[in-house]
Amino acid sequence: MEQTINIEQIFGILRKHHKLIAISTIACTLLAFIVTFFIMTPQYSASTELLVNRKQNNDANVQYNQVQTDVQMINTYKDLIVKPVIMDTVESKINKGNSHKLADIDQMVSISNNQNSQVFSINVKADNAYTAADIANTTAETFQKKAPKIMSGTDNVSIISKAKPDLTPVSPKNKLNILIGLVLGLLLGVGIAFIRELTDKTVKDESFLTDELGLTSLGVINNIAEKDIIKKAIMSVSSSRLTRRG
């Protein structure tokens, strides 16, 4: 038969397994704390902004068309910056004189821009705030120098905002991770409690036989502890001896 649970039974299950739920919640929260503060590597972000203009024509209509073309060319610039023609030079400059060589710098770099804007940002994430700022600025300077040679007409690349080290990590999100651990631990504990309860087929009372299994109750045999049986037997023997003596 299909087993249903009402609100009273739900709270009863939660009360019955409150220790399990508490242990699960504490364990998962503690695990999230350890992973966040001792295992995950903090990541820092830095950004620099560039403005790219091509040679302007005195005709107003031509100027408008050039601006629209510049906006559309942003996608090309975004692709160009992360290509080896730029990144190889950036990697060479960053690693020059450093004992700890960085690899796959292009994986740390992302490009973003606002819609219909000639300004775009070079964003870098690294495990060191100063390294992130250095990569962002070096990438911008390299693009500023190489862009006119690679793309004809791109003769005016301006760095309008240089990256500065931000010592506040962007990840991991400490409070969020711990909150997630707490919620997952709570849900895990509640889930285990309900699974154990729903899969437990032990007969706990007469209603289980009549309501759940549809059987007819012929009576109830109470459970008698072994010590009570022994005590009752001793009393019975003693009473019998006294009767015989009398």
TrEMBL record:
Every Polysaccharide chain length determinant N-terminal domain range: 4-90
Primary localization:
membrane
Listed PANTHER family: FERRIC ENTEROBACTIN TRANSPORT PROTEIN FEPE (PTHR32309:SF13), TYROSINE-PROTEIN KINASE (PTHR32309)
Location comes to:
Cell membrane
Question: What membrane topology does the annotation report for this chain?
Answer: Multi-pass membrane protein
Q: Give the protein's recorded name.
A: Capsular polysaccharide biosynthesis protein CpsC
Q: Would you identify the family this protein belongs to, as annotated? A: Belongs to the CpsC/CapA family.
- Give an example GO molecular function: protein tyrosine kinase activity
Note the InterPro entries from the entry.
Answer: Bact_polysacc_biosynth/exp, GNVR, LPS_length_determ_N
Keyword Transmembrane helix on entry? yes
- Residue span, Tyrosine-protein kinase G-rich domain: 151-197
Any one GO cellular component localisation term in the record: plasma membrane
Q: In which pathway does it act?
A: Capsule biogenesis; capsule polysaccharide biosynthesis
GO aspect biological process, one term: polysaccharide biosynthetic process
Q: What is this protein's function per UniProt?
A: Required for CpsD phosphorylation. Involved in the regulation of capsular polysaccharide biosynthesis. May be part of a complex that directs the coordinated polymerization and export to the cell surface of the capsular polysaccharide.
Q: Organism, per UniProt? A: Latilactobacillus fuchuensis DSM 14340 = JCM 11249
Keywords of the record, alphabetical order, are: Capsule biogenesis/degradation, Cell membrane, Exopolysaccharide synthesis, Membrane, Transmembrane, Transmembrane helix
- Transmembrane regions listed in the UniProt entry: 20-40, 176-195
Protein origin, superkingdom: Bacteria
